[in-house]
Amino acid sequence: MRVLAFARLRELLASGELTLELAAGARVSDAWRMLAARHGALEELANSTRFARNGQIVSCDTRLADGDELALLPPVGGG
Amino acid sequence: MAERTSSARLSARALRRYSRHLLIPEVGLTGQERLAAARVLVVGAGGLGSPALQYLAAAGVGRIGVIDDDSVDETNLQRQTIFSASDVGRNKAVAAAERLRGLNPLIAIDALPLRFGPDNARDLVRLYDTVLDCTDRFPTRYLISDACVLERKPDVYGSIFRFDGQVSVFGAEFGPCYRCLYPEAPPPGSVPSCAEGGVLGALAGVIGTWQASEALKLLLGIGEPLIGRLMLVDTLGANVRTVRFDRDPDCIACGARPTIGDRPLLVSDEEASTSDVPEVEADALDEVLRDAFLLDVREPHEAVLGSLDGAVQIPASQLEGRMHELDSARRYVVACRVGVKSLWAVTRLREAGFTRLQHLQGGLLAYAARHAEFDFF
Ligand SMILES: [Zn+2]
Fold it and tell me: How high is the ipTM of this complex?
């Protein structure tokens, strides 16, 4: 599955685009946990980040399918 | 001549000035008259407010309110193009209003040199038709959104971080609000502001200009505003995409059973956590450091240009793994660049059992401003 990371998360993941291999039936929260296990610094954005599956913002318990695109959208506050 | 030559509301001079709008069928004379009758409030005259204000004024929006309690700093000039070098030190709302009056003497500008806060939010929003969120702080973003939901006004939102920008329109009739998109504010220090993390100046121009464009669409009633859509601008990849989002039925502001009452909430994690952390003012730092250690939590790229002798340097991003280098029996003054990340670091250190902690108010920037020999930016 293709993962797109924006703003602060692109920096913390050191990449704007990565690929994740998820088990069948995995949810958005599983994808996040997998990434957070590799990059501990993600933890502080765990509660404020929103997720878009194929261009629609969804809840953490939404199931993912092979071929989905998941965008990680942390809050951006500067002005 | 397709151009109309008389208008109940617009003078001959105005018709000439706005002729390139009058030539667009979607605007025309009717649209230009609507703009002349419109009132827009821009909260924040900074990186986003600079382009937004200038395009709204040039477009002939009849009344523009600009609210900002901050003053122009030399470091603002890299992106806040509404100001001249000679404006440094002046209040932003006052300096911006002066520039806008010069740009378009046919419109009215309200200069509001105040903080947009919970006590004045609703009253201010009520006076205008549309609000632009051009602020630099999360608590104010929630406040603007709540006030717009309560007053049923659209909230044209823009935000920036380094190379990334977001634009959306909240609170419009039946559309979601900022809390529907981001119900929870990030912990203080986790998402750096422009002053902390830096920002590409031109990105502020892109996003602020896009906010002006969305506001003009709303006022004119044309096109497809970004209601229920979040636009993501990635400058480095040169990609722009939009994602859709829905109104949250459980939203505490615009949901089925709102709990914010009739007063907008100030989600002020920053203020809340500040209140119980002892602060050291920049003027008192040298004195305090006679029997305390300075813990400098700036990231390496922030610290390259200067530090204080004897400071312990552990970047905030490495704090978790390097706490063992600190001695909890010692007294530490935690400092970062502007005094936000240091608050976060104090919280983490307290959780780990450290008790003798203070934080440097305003960060090392505030200290540098008082010590010419300590030169970094
Ligand atoms: Zn809402």
Answer: 0.97
